[in-house]
Amino acid sequence: MSFLHTLRFLLLAAVLASVVGGVCAWVYINDMVQPVLEPLNQAYTGYSNVPRRAPGLKLEVFEFTGWDGLPVQAVLATKDGEESSRQLSVIGSLAAQPATRLGQIDYVLVSVDWDHGIRSALPLAESLTAAGIACVLWDSRGKDNCRTYCTHGLQESRDVPALLDAVTKRSGMAHPVFAAVGQGYGASLLLQAAAMEPRIRGLVAIDAYASLRQSVVRTIPETMWRPIVMGLMDMRIRSIAGMESFEVAPGDRASDIKRDVPVLIVNLLQDNPVSTLEDALMIYRRLRSERREVWTLRSAEDSPESTSRDIFYGNGRRKQTPLSVRLVQDADSALPSIIHWMNEHVVDAVEAPRVVAPSRPVPTSESHL
Asked: Could you give the CA distance from residue 322 to residue 63 in angstroms, rounded to a whole number?
């Protein structure tokens, strides 16, 4: 084989290798991006968005128009009929110390997953309704899954003002009191919603992620190629959903939540890179709330008698700040404690008198003497 033929062969092999490598890289990036923009809750595959019935609950279905003009399905869930096992568990936990002040809260927004948003929120709603709370659930994907891609609350949070308007109109009350409980995606969505919607008077965020970019980066193997993979993923996310991962930053948006809104950040996931105690602390640090707390699960390193863990948090560029984090025994026991927290802190904030700026005195002729 002549030198020219050898060179041509090597060039052709290099081109083919580049094409094959590019195709493989594109397939890999698409596989990484798909669960970010189209998360699918496999537990509810094949089910309709809105259930006809649920244990221990009365479901009132309604629709409202979302921020983009598309119809969104929602449900008002209240306790009704024979209690479910989940409700009985909560009722038993509250028997010794009833949460008697929750009547001050008219509705609690409940959000968990983007996919099958109503069905995935039902377990939380079951437990909350056992304490007499009326829950509002809605499907972030819209009616008949009319929204194709998830923006992790960046756009979906813009539905919340319209949802509150619809519930207020149905209630017949002038100014109903709203609180919110979210988990995972729902917690991050509600953090963004509470930053723009002052009608949310209290918030519990369970396993919220502080930044979509940071959560995605944690799922990428730690190699020298990680920044390149993240860059390519961001390009693909932008081309599909018209957003950048860094735009979804519930931790940053938390700083816009009003100072008088109580916020509880709960970290129940362990060894999960998407939502960590670090995320909870980041959100806590950005909050301005005068009533803010962080809870986390007890670990093997915590003594059996301890009810809190002293840790330090900060942004790495200034002195670390000490914080006492309350310890939760397990996920099942967390919810009654959360209900008691709402009974105390959210209701206190609702009942607190509002400081009104003094009116400017009317000038008189004597005031100018």
From this structure: 46
Angle 27-32-36 (CA atoms, 0-180°, nearest 5)?
Answer: 135
The three-point CA angle 111-115-117 to 5° equals 30
What's the pLDDT tens digit per position in 321-363?
889 999 998 887 899 999 999 999 999 888 876 544 444 444 4
Q: How many CB atoms lie within 10 A of CB 14?
A: 10
On whether the CB atoms of residues 234 and 212 are closer than 8 A, the answer is no
User: Please, what are the domains in the chain?
Assistant: 34-351 (3.40.50.1820)
Name the DSSP letter for residue 343: I
Specify which residues 203 forms β-bridges with.
180, 263
| Residue where the block lists tokens 């002038």 | 174
For β-strands 263-267 and 321-328, DSSP reports them as unpaired
Burial class (CB in 10 A: 0-12, 13-18, 19+), 91: middle
Name the DSSP letter for residue 8.
H
Sheet of strand 321-328, all strands in order from the earlier edge strand to the far edge: 57-65, 71-79, 135-138, 107-111, 178-183, 200-206, 263-267, 292-297, 321-328, 308-313
Nearest by Cα to 207 from 140, 134, 111: 111
Global pTM reads: 0.88
CB 153 within 8 A of CB 134: no
Looking only at the bridges linking them, the beta strands covering 263-267 and 292-297 are parallel
Q: What is the pLDDT of residues 1-57, one digit of tens each?
A: 566 666 665 666 565 655 555 556 667 788 888 888 988 887 888 888 899 889 999
Q: How far apart are CA 54 and CA 58, in angstroms?
A: 7
Instruction: Give the burial class of 133: count Cβ atoms within 10 A of its Cβ; 0-12 exposed, 13-18 middle, 19 or more buried.
Output: buried
3-class SS at 109? strand
Task: Tell me if 209 sits within 8 A of 274, measured CB to CB.
Answer: yes
Question: What would the two tokens of residue 229 be?
Answer: 């993979």
Residue 92 dihedral angles phi and psi, to the nearest 5°: -65, -40
Question: Residues of 178-214 as b/e, b for ≥16 C-beta within 10 angstroms?
Answer: bbbbbbbbbbbbbbbbbbebebbbbbbbbbbbbbbbb
